[in-house]
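Q: Can someone sanity-check these two? First one:
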Amino acid sequence: MTNKLNKLLGNRIQYLRKTRGFSQEKFAEAINIATTSLSYIETGRGFMTLATLEKMIEVLKVEPYEIFQFSQSKTQEEMYDFLNEKVESIKNDNEKLKKAYTVIKNLL
């Protein structure tokens, strides 16, 4: 559970950082941590102190609850894996496969 939360929180911080135009280096500098530490946080391999979290909230100009809104925090790999899993689950259901094919075909 902790690893999943670290990854979700890291993805969310990375998303917010990028949407606000910060490079990893500039953001790390603004919150007074090493770029490698930020990288560990954003990839879910590390966690930050409460003081660092508070500084992130301040620099990103977000409300504290916004840091924990994970619904938009899916990585490209997570979305791809999800879609592959769903396609695999319907591969023998001709009707569902046709519907999925039609939706995807119309998106492209």
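And here is the second, same format, sequence then tokens:
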Amino acid sequence: MIGFSVYLNDELSQTKLDQLTAFKQAGFTGVFTSLHIPEDDVAKYLPRLKRLGAACQQLSLQLTADVSAAGMTRLGLDIEDTNAITQLGVTGLRIDDGIEMAVVARLSQQLPIALNASTITSANIATLKANQADFDHLEAWHNYYPRPETGLDEAWLVDKNRWLRAQGFKTMAFVAGDAQRRGPLAAGLPTLEVDRYQSPLAATLRLMAQDDVDQVYLGDPGLSAHSRLQFQQYFQQHNLALMIKTNQDWLLQQVWHQRLDVARDVVRLVEGRQQFQQVAPASLMTRAVGAITLDNNDYGRYVGELQLVKRPLGADQRVNVIGQVCQEDLALLPLIAGGQAIKFIKEADANGFG
């Protein structure tokens, strides 16, 4: 599952509601919101939550609300009145401060509950079991960290997630957005510090593939059009979309595939040698990370070999450089799995490659 965040500190304008549809079309299935309410906004939150819940129900989006005992009291809601909560369109709760594990156990018998992944202890789990918690309804969700330099260490996250999985929990982590970032710091809302300024899709794929994370949510409310297209291509069409600079428009006209046997230094695209029997040598160029290369006639039986460079490589008279993956998508290159379908998208101001 992938999800995104909607915050209730502002009115839910039609533009924001339209964004829900755009995220849904891009393959997102969950929505996260927070009910930690500023003192002067208590009267505004409940109507906004109702409107968000109704929109999520209409789009079949799961809505999880981050709650605390104090916040629920100020909203005039009983944390254990699950009928009242679900009537607002909320389908699950992420439990924060001040709610006892015995209460969590009772709640889990009625709806999905996410616990704070960073603070779950063996004692908590024993209490949940003693109170007949439904572990099929329990998950472990990590926090996001607004202040730079405070995001989690990746090795620590992996160790924690392995322990959580051994206890039967599915895990969730946040990645930062690359458009509108939530204030007041507007420095991204990732779980891992390494992801603070990372491509949202690259951060998502690495969390899922390498860090034992089952679900990823976008912490910030905004995602650029390019990133939204990448999520839609990957999770709906199963294509990895890469923005490139090139004058070779034939690269844009089909879907390419990485070979099943993954090379260390380059991504090798199966279809290249199937399509080219003759390639004239071109100007000699160093192969930077992200270079798109085509082997020329001087490489003999490898003529037509089409590659994306993952590590800096020197110039080779047998290899033509015909394009470049744009900077924002370079982090995706090491994450391309064997057999992965790849779709190239041309940057509007592409130039410099013949």
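A (reply): Looked at the second one. Residues 349-354 have pLDDT under 50 and may be disordered. The longest strand covers residues 239-246.
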